[in-house]
Design a protein that fits this description.
alpha+beta; three-stranded antiparallel sheet; WH-like_DNA-bd_sf; cytoplasm; WH_DNA-bd_sf; transcription cis-regulatory region binding; 138 residues
Amino acid sequence: MTPDAIERGTKWLASADLRPTRQRVQLAALLVGDGQNRHVTAESLFAASVESCEKVSLATVYNTLKAFCDAGLMREVVVDGSKSYFDTRTDEHPHFYWEENGALEDASADGLRIASLPELPEGAELSRIDVVIRLRKA
């Protein structure tokens, strides 16, 4: 892992006042170290950490991703109710989900219009709307 990647990861953690533990810095560097946004699963981030020779357990990866989401550094995108992706881009935006290979990618919000919503149950407030557009090759 490059010193630049570690520095970016450390600054990313500091932006959310998260304590920079060794594991958090390592995972943050893998997530944002190159300055690009990405979508990962816990399993894919764990595999990347193994490839980079970083010693982090899968349970630590899950716990760290949850902490990053709780701190507002990432957003969880649930696909099929059973598969979660974690997105380093935290603004409101839709996603394309490719059914054949399970890839998740950002979609443009241009042209997306949500004209109305059903009436919310009493005592509820809207938290957010997730739009996942499922695709398969024609």
